[in-house]
Design a protein that fits this description.
This protein is α+β, with helices and mostly antiparallel strands. The chain has helices at about 5-20, 25, 30-35, 95-100, 120-130, 130-150, 175-185, 265, 290-300, 300-325, 335-340; strands spanning about 40-45, 50, 60-65, 70-75, 80-85, 90, 105-110, 115-120, 170, 210, 215-220, 230-235, 235-240, 245-250, 260, 275-280, 280-285. The strands form four sheets. It has a five-stranded antiparallel β-sheet with strand order 9-10-17-12-15.
């Protein structure tokens, strides 16, 4: 890669870290960033040129390192409406990238733009040479989606008014926790067999196994604690004050979005977005954000895989909500191990 594009890449990443300090631990090493840049493809766009066309099925995400991009949407009757703009450093195309849907907006260069296209294959190539950078890119993409979700749900939304309850998660002692978790982690569906087995030595010190009695709260809406929970046994559901069930979680589900709780706070510094109760006695693997440095240093490949699953879970749930509003069949995030096998167009 020539110095022109490398400087653009490094400068944009530095600016992104300045805006979100949480990215620094992943994207702060120059040598790793340079290695990642070598497997990504920068593209220059003149003002007015199209980066992404509405309805395109390429599934690429884009990281804009220079310039400003303008977004527009064409309605069914043909009218085109200008929406927002985004200046570097910024990312877009995340939902199409994560769940394989067509792009729902058109993106055009408002000024001269430099952007790096990110395909599933190129992300995997980054992970091969710089796994922490690959994880940081996933967190960058996810943070933008998370903050848009939070903004869309701000205000007095009666449909999302939750019971406030004190979470009653009981942490198991290390020996009991390892015994309870070992077999369950080997068979956590939605992931290749044994994906989470390397976590077992860290149980009790860096990560926890917790149990919740039937009827007790697992997490509560508005809480600022940001741990991620993977359901290992039992069932849980997210319910509003009116009794409406917004989500169900079932151990052994074949897709990641039915076993993961707390992904928004884990990916970005935002409060819990719902209250979840245990419908039966339930056991969870709990990973706090404090455990991320240990995960990144000890198990960088697993950390990357986990973050891809989180990104797909967040975007899959948005798509499900959109499909429900349109009265169409909801999609799921699907098996992790099949995601990278899908051919880039």
């Amino acid at each position: 890669m020539n110095n022109r594009y490398l400087d653009s890449w490094l400068s944009a990443v530095a600016s992104a870290i300045a805006q979100d300090s949480g990215l620094g631990g992943w994207l702060g090493q120059r040598a790793s960033l340079e290695a990642a840049a070598e497997v990504l493809e920068p593209v220059s766009f003149a003002p007015g040129e199209t980066l992404v066309e509405q309805g395109a099925g390429d599934r690429d995400a884009w990281i804009v390192t220079e310039g400003t991009v303008a977004f527009e949407v064409q309605e069914g009757h043909g009218d085109v409406h200008s929406l927002h703009t985004a200046a570097a450093p910024s990312a877009f195309g995340t939902r199409a990238f994560a769940v394989g849907r067509t792009h729902n907006l058109t993106a055009r260069a408002k000024t001269p733009v430099v952007a790096f296209g990110l395909t599933r294959r190129s992300l995997q190539n980054v992970a091969a040479v710089a796994p922490l950078v690959a994880t940081g890119l996933v967190r960058w993409l996810a943070a933008d989606v998370v903050h848009r979700i939070v903004q869309s749900r701000a205000g007095n939304n009666e449909e999302r008014r939750f019971v406030l309850a004190f979470p009653r998660r009981k942490t198991l002692p290390q020996g009991q926790a390892m015994e309870a978790a070992s077999a369950l982690l080997l068979t956590l569906r939605g992931f290749p067999a044994g994906t989470f087995e390397p976590l077992v030595p860290g149980i009790g010190e860096h990560i926890q196994i917790v149990q919740v009695a039937e009827g007790d709260a697992v997490v509560s809406h508005g809480d600022k604690e940001r741990s991620l929970l993977l359901l290992l046994s039992g069932t849980s559901s997210s319910r509003t004050t009116k009794g409406r069930v917004l989500g169900r979680f079932t151990a052994g589900a074949a897709v990641s979005d039915e076993v993961m709780l707390g992904e928004l706070g884990f990916l970005a510094d935002v409060p819990r977005d719902g209250t979840v109760f245990a419908d039966s006695a339930a056991t969870f693997l709990e990973i706090s954000t404090d455990a991320l440095p240990w995960l990144a240093q000890t198990l960088p490949d697993l950390t990357f895989q986990l973050h891809v699953a989180l990104l797909r879970t967040v975007c899959g749930r948005i798509e499900q909500a959109d499909d429900a509003r349109k009265h169409t069949q909801a999609i799921t995030a699907g098996h992790f191990d099949s995601w990278f096998d899908e051919r880039d167009e």
